[in-house]
């Protein structure tokens, strides 16, 4: 195996390990509901994915038993992250809808108050 190919496989391994570490961190921060940090880590993980896509040896490394074991550890973490992110998003949407409903009711109440005050008895 050429030194260049070996270096590429080593870089692919490091990328996969970084992806795994970032996935663990994503789960940690979504559990803490630290959405800002979660989003920052997601950006970092997307950068790693772009590096993985640009490296031809990524696919070669993915075929190894070592990588398959890593992928098997990542998949359940990804599923938890997706589930928790969807739950957070739904909760956020519900809270947002509640706030807007309250705002509209509040505006009607204020307009009604003005009408009562403007009446001459």
Averaging pLDDT over every residue, what do you get?
85
Oligomer: single chain
Largest sheet: none
**pLDDT < 50 runs, ≥5 residues:** none
Rg estimate, integer Å: 25 Å
Count every helix, treating DSSP H or I runs of 4 or more residues as helices.
4
Helix percentage: over 70%
Write down the secondary-structure element order: HHHH
Tell me the distance between the termini.
97 Å
Could you tell me the strand content as a percent range? under 5%
Q: Tell me, briefly, the overall form.
A: elongated
How many DSSP E strands?
Answer: 0
Count of the separate structural domains: 1
Structural class: mainly alpha
Describe the model:
The protein has 121 residues and is mainly alpha-helical. It contains 4 helices and no strands. α1 packs antiparallel against α2 and α1 runs parallel beside α4. The model has no long low-confidence stretch (mean pLDDT 85).
